[in-house]
Design brief:
By secondary structure, the chain is mainly β. The protein has one domain. It is about 0% helix and about 60% strand. The chain has a five-stranded antiparallel beta sheet with strand order 1-2-3-4-5, with no helix packed on it. The chain is globular. The mean pLDDT is about 90.
Length: about 60
């Protein structure tokens, strides 16, 4: 179960959403200009289930 969510943006404009769970893990989504990167971090600090998807919002499909 999600305990709380933290949203922030770094100096380069990358937006982050971190969801903290009651088991001590967190799920992070990074919104970069050209791609979105999702991953889970266990309470031991191990990174799991990385998903890297292109951001089609900025592509020119004409």
């Amino acid at each position: 179960m999600i305990i709380w969510t933290w949203r922030w943006k770094d100096e380069s404009g990358v937006r982050f959403v971190e969801r903290f769970y009651d088991d001590g893990s967190k799920y992070v989504t990074e919104y970069h200009r050209d791609f979105v990167w999702d991953y889970r971090i266990t309470k031991d600090g191990k990174r799991l289930a990385e998903i890297h998807t292109p951001n089609y919002k900025h592509s020119d499909n004409t």
